[in-house]
Each structure stands twice: as C-alpha cells, then as structure tokens.
Amino acid sequence: MTYTTTERGHLADFIRGLAAVVVFAFLLVGCPVAMYAMGGSPIPDRFPSWEEVGATLMRRDTDQSFFLATIWFLGWASWCLFIVTVCAEMINYFAGRDKPVLPRPARPLQHLVRELVATATLTFSAAASLATSATAATHTQAVTDVHAGSAPSGERDHQSPGRVAPPQEPTASEWTPLLADEAPSHPKPDPRPERTHIVKRGETLWDLARRTYGSGALYPKIFKTSKNIDQPDGVPALTNPSVLHPGQHIRIPHPSAPDESSSPSRVTSTPPVPEQAAPPGPGKANESRTSASPGPTSGQPTPTQVPTPVVAPPRDEPASPPPSAPNDQESAGAPLAISLPSGSLIGIGLAAALSVAVAATRLHRRRRYVPNPDPGAYGSTTDSPLPAPVLKARHAHLRTYTDRDAPAPSDPDLVREDLRTAEPDHLVVGTRDDQALTVRLSGLSLGLSGDGAHAAARAITTELLAKAHRYRAEVLIPQADAQALFPGDDITDLCAALEGLIITPSLDAATSRLEAELLRRGRVLEMTEQPDVPALRAEDPAEPLPTVLLVASVPADNGTVQGLAALGRRYSLGVLALGPWPSGTRVGVSSDATVTDAHGPDAERFTGARLFHLTTDDAAGMLRTIRTATGTETDATPPPPNADAEPQPELEPEPSVSAVIPPPRQSEEARHAPVRLDVLGPVRLHTANGPVNTGLRQRARDLLAYLAVHPDGATRDQACADLWPEDSPESVVPMFNTAVTNIRSILRTATGLSEPMYVIHEAGRYRIDPDVIDIDLWRLTTALAEARRATDDTARIKSLTLVADRCGDEFGGGLTQEWAEVHRENLRRTIGDALANLARLIEEDDPEQALVVLERAITHDRYSEPLHRHIMRLQACLGRPDAVRRTHELLAARLGELDAEPDDETRKLLSSSMRASNRNR
C-alpha cells in the first residue's frame, strides 16, 4: 500500500500523538500505581504528634527509611503538581487563552505538559484526516471504476492524454480541519454556513484561509464575516487582517456557503497539479495544488460526477505570505521569467527588487544634489546611466502594472511600498512546466553542482541581496566564494554599504559566525518562550532576526554545516552549497541552468526545472544599482560643470535629451495657436472648445510627449527605439504610423482645421508644427534659455521669474519609458538650479520673496536636502527659530519615506540656529 505525501505526514502526526498519549498514560496512571505499590497510600492514617516528629528528625537514619520516605513524599507532590498543570494546560489549550507562565522551578514541567498536550491532540486530528483521505480515495476509485465501466472498451483502452477525468471529491489536503476543530466525516457540504474558530498564538488569516479553502488569497472572506462579531471580555476586536490576537473569535464560512454560488452547471473538474510551488510551512503537511480545467464537451456532468465546489489556489502562491503584501509581484498575470540580452534569465521577484533599487537611487540622488549656481550650466548635469540589464528588469516590472490596467507607481510610491514589505520567507528560483519553482529560505538545504551552478547561485544571491536591506535577510559568504561568484570589487563595495551582506575570510569563520547566531537565537527564543523565529517575528516584529543564508563551497565531510542546515527551519537559517552536498537536496545544473539530475527530499520538484541564472557582467551592474540604492554612493553629487566624466563603455548610453533645448523660432500667429499641448504633468491636448478627452490613443500621447522633447524632430527609427524598445522592428513601424494618423485625425476634428499637418514630416524627421501647437515645455525652456543668455542680474531675475511661473508639474506624468524618466530627472534638476539661483539673487533685497521661491522649489523636489537647508538659513536670518525647526521636521518626515535621516550638516544648522535664538532672548 502506497501513501501520498499528505497521508505520510498525517501518519507521522498520528504516531507522534499516539506516543504522547502513551507517555501521558504512564505519568497519569503508571507512576501513582508504582508509588502506591512501593510505599502505600500517601494519605496517613493519623497525624503524628510533635514528639514523634522531633524524635524522627533527631534520630540517625541508619536504615535510610527517612530518606526513602522523603523521596516517596516528593514523588507524590510532583505527581499532584503534574495533574494540576495538565488540567490547566488542557483547559487553556481548548479555550484558546494565553497560557500563564509558572515560576522558573516549575517552568520545565509546564513546557513538558504543554508539548504533550499539543502532541497528543495530533492523534485525533490526524486520525480524522486519514479517515477523510481514505473515504475520499475510496469514493474516487469507485467513481473512476463506474465511469470506466460505462465507457466503451475502445475508449477505456485508448483514452487520449487530453481527455478530462471525472471530478474527484475533495481530499484531505483540500479541506484540512483546523486543530481542535471538528473534522468533517465526509466531504459533503456542511449544512452550517459558517463556523466559529478561536485564534491560537501564531495563526494568521492567510493560514486559516489556506487550510480551509486551499488558497490563502481568500483571507478577505474570513475577515469580512469576522470583523463585526462580539469578542470575549478583554480580547480586542478584529480590525486589521494582518493582526490576530490569541483568544479572538472569528467566523469561517464553509467552502460550500451560499456566497460561493457554485451550481452543477458550472462545475469543472479539478485534477491535482504536481507539487512545484512553495513547500509547506512548519508543522503542516504538504498541500496538494489544484487548478481548473475544462469539463466534458457536453457541458453537463455525467451521472457519476458529483459537483464539488473546490477553490483552486494560484500555482505560484507563496508558502505563507502575510495578508498585507501589497507589492508582491509574483502573482497571477506577472511573467515568471525575464530574458536579458546577455542570455541571463531572472524572475519577476528580482525585477521588482531592482525596480525599487532604481527608484531609491534616483531619490537619494535628488536628496543630495547641490544646486548649480552657474546659469550657463542649466541642463548640462546628468546622472550616470543605469546598466542595461537593470533597465530591462525595471521595464518588465512596470509592464506588469500596464498588463493589469493599473497606473504605474512613481519612484516615491515604489520606495514607500517596499518599506511596508515584510522579510522574504521564500524565493522563486526557476520555472518548471510553466509554473514557478519556489524554495523556502528558512531551513533551505540545497546544493548546486555542474556547469551552470555558479550562474544559478549568482541569481539567487543577487535577488536576496536586493531584498536584504532593513534587516530583512542576511547573506553570509566566504571571501573565496564571493570572488568566484562576483569577480571584481562590486561585491566588496556592496558589503561596505549593505548591512545584509557579510563576507568572511574563510568557511570556518562563516561557520563560527553561524553557530554563534544560532546560539544567540536559541537564547532569545528561550527568553521569549517562542517555538521558532517566525513565531517570534509575528509576536515582536521589531526584533531584528533576519533570515541568514550561507552561500559557500562546503566539503562533504563538514558535519558542522550539515548540522546547522538541519536546524535551519526553527532558527531561520539556510545553506546554499556550491558543489556536492550530502545533506538536503542535491541538484545538477547544466550550462543553460536546466536541472539534469536531482537527489534528496525535494528532488521531484526540481527534476526538469530551469533555474534562473545571471552572467557576471549582469550581476555586476545589478550589484552597483543595489549599492547606490542605499544612498551611500560616492558619486551621488554631480561633478563640476567643466569636469570630465569617466567613460563607461559597458553601460547603455544615456538618451541625448537636454532640458533647455529652445524650440524653433515661432511666428506671431503661434502665440494664439489653435492647439495647446501640456506635457508638464499628464499629457493633455486643449483646443478653443476645451480639452480633448476622447479618441487620442496612449501611443499617440507618448509620441506627442516625445516630439515635445525633440523640437528639432526625430527620425522614425529613433522614436520607435525609445518609445517601444520591447517590440519587434516589424511591428513598431505600423504602430508609429497609426499614432501619427490618430494625432492628425483627432486634432482636425477638434479644431475644424483640415489644412495643418500638426506633425510635420520633412527631411526624414518628424516634428511638431510650432505654428499650430503651443507647448508648455517650450515656454519653460525658452525662459531657461533666456536666463542662460542674460548678461546681468536684472535680466536674469526676469527670466528666472518666468521659469518659476511656468515650471508646473513634473514632466510626462505616467510615462515610464527610460527616455521620459531621464528627461524628467534632468528637468527637475534644472528647475531646482534655476529656482535656487533666483532665490540667491533676490534674498538680500527681498528675503520674503526668496522664501516663496524656495518653497516652490521644495514643492517641485520634496527630497532635496540642500534646498531645505537654504530655507532654514533664510529663516534663521529672519529670526524665526520656530520656522527653522518646522522646516527641519518637514525634511525629516520626507526623508523618513526613504528610510533616511537628515545629514549632520542639517542637524548642526538646526542646533546653531537654536543656540543663536536662545542668546538673543
């Protein structure tokens, strides 16, 4: 007789529970019987007098009778304490209340009883689960036999691979009863629409939904029915789906409740899917995955098909993610793998992490950029270009929002979303059969060998490093292995900037550090009385206990590392071995990162999979981006205007976009052009009849914004390469022509003017007709150009005042292409330079107006620390210490969105202003 993985797990739980019951029986019955046989009843026939007590204590115990009587009495007292503790623990366990902590001498006995009670309950829940599995299996076999018997013999012998089998009854993995809840004796729908469950320590709505419906993503259903129910005295109400308190009552709707609205005519069969998603959490049996497939061609169930409302979880669902995971991009609809031009293959998880790193890099550069006082340098300062693989990954991540018809997040939105993300508990390391292959970090014991082992390990390590900031995860790697995976100085530079990376001189040093960390965590768990590190994180999220992953070449005879890997699940430790690995799962990887052979507990999940992999050049570019995202890059402040920048041939060249290119000379009629195009903010068209709200396609809007940045025009090939870099050359030409046609058609209809071309094509270049379309960006760049040409401060102040009036919102709101982001950053920096220069020119004669200009500047660039310091200096000169303090608080709050703090220079400026104010009082 063979057992499935789930049945083997239930059988092991049953055996452990049965052993606990035997130990219970011995302690409860065997011990008192043995003590009674040796010493009789502990209740004396009469109480001795004081004289008899004194005589007994004073005489010499030659026959050891007094000693044996003392031991006998202590045994009965310990047994009575054991009985009291058992009763209290059982009442607390089934009532779902917090367990009081006994004094330290009795605490080991309390822990023993607690473990025995919890383990003994496995006997009943596992037995019910096994019975349910057997019933379901028997029923499924009967249904299959009846169906096979009713089919013609030819069909029974020659069924096609695509033929749909009859739907099966839910197995134990599809409906796993909660511990201490009533287990259904059969999978038929429960007549009760919902049932009440008492929350136990460590439980989450995600886990409850996963165990009840098969998918944790259905937790809102439980929260909706439970948030308004009355709670016992002293237990808080359920107001946040991410926060559960022990003892809370929640209502769990049955899978066949009316709101599921499943009818026989809509039932589809749900054959089990091979397990290649996340492994089960601690203490849980492996849960079978199911997915919907088409029913019979007739659309009607056969007489042997029983409608079964089974909810199918997503195939790439995380093992146990918290309900609040807003930026989890590894969801349905997102691409599983992203191919890079170099041949590397990465997952959407790494792409999302790199997208956040790009956003953080830009924000930190904006924070530290010092405005350039030279008007002749407006628009000439640019940032170092981002590596090509990083740009590709970021574009793939942002495209997931477009595919869901969701607005693309801004850089601050991405960073704020990342700050709310919990520590990673799993990683998607590859794909198999078009499904995600997920590994759990806590307790990871994986060895990679073969030609593609280093490339696969490089991809895993890079993704974890991208997510390792803010004490979420930690990578421990010996120096030799670090240089083998990441040649060059990039990994060393990242180690100095990232708290989540530790490079040790040798494997022995890494092992010693890992042992010390295990001992420290063991003491913390003992003091907090938590079973494991994940439970401690749930109880105290502020405790810095990140998941630690050792990445190293481990000799086969190193038993220490193997022992640490065996204890990893409880202490949130993992081992990724480079080379043969006698413990855990061993995977052979070919040069293209395809798994050729696998051995160990998870061998079946890895067989035939293709792992993500990175080349050394791609990994180097990603590590540099991860380092700059910490805000510690040395080149964050741009070089002086005349400084020569170091060429970087390995990086993709930055688009040649200047923020101050003046438009062509316009005629007098252009001042009253029939069309106005706004690109400072969302791209919009206006005519004399009002805004053009319908008919204009998104590609046409993108093209208008692009041509506004290129007043001298651009070739079709250049525009297509910048606007739609992911599309094939054969498809972009029709798209470009359709966009131009759409612009002309919409504007001719909106204005009633059919003669103008609006988008002119001459000499192989396309450009916007400046005589019929007025653009806000051109008015701004004209004022900037005049400020550059000004020969005295009066003319310069006049031009810069026009800049302050025309700067508007940021360029191209909603555009995510690289050309738009580069121009947006350049324009923001140019406007900041201009406004800071205007404030400097007028602050001596009109400091109040200078403050107004600087307020406009920090509205345009809310994270610029030098601009905030400029305001603080002006406020201090005007004798406004309270205003200085409020500006500092505003800056601190804004930098807090980036997980950063004001620099020492800013704090010193605040302190000096406060001291000067106190002296003047």
Automatic annotation (TrEMBL):
Map out region (Disordered) in residue numbers.
146-172, 179-198, 226-335, 368-388, 630-671
Q: Which InterPro entries match?
A: AfsR-DnrI-RedD_regulator, BTAD, LysM, LysM_dom_sf, TPR-like_helical_dom_sf, WH-like_DNA-bd_sf
Question: Which ranges are annotated Pro residues under compositional bias?
Answer: 271-282
State the SMART domains in the record: BTAD, LysM
**Basic and acidic residues bias spans:** 183-198
Q: Record keywords: Membrane included?
A: yes
* DNA-binding keyword on record: yes
Q: Where is the composition biased (Low complexity)?
A: 258-270, 290-303
- CDD domains given in the database record: LysM
Q: Which Pfam families match?
A: BTAD (PF03704), LysM (PF01476)
Which UniProt keywords are present, listed alphabetically?
Answer: DNA-binding, Membrane, Transmembrane, Transmembrane helix
Q: Which PROSITE patterns match?
A: LYSM
Task: Give one GO molecular function term.
Answer: DNA binding
* Spans traversing the lipid bilayer: 18-38, 66-95
Q: Where is the LysM domain?
A: 195-252
Q: What is this protein called?
A: DNA-binding SARP family transcriptional activator/LysM repeat protein
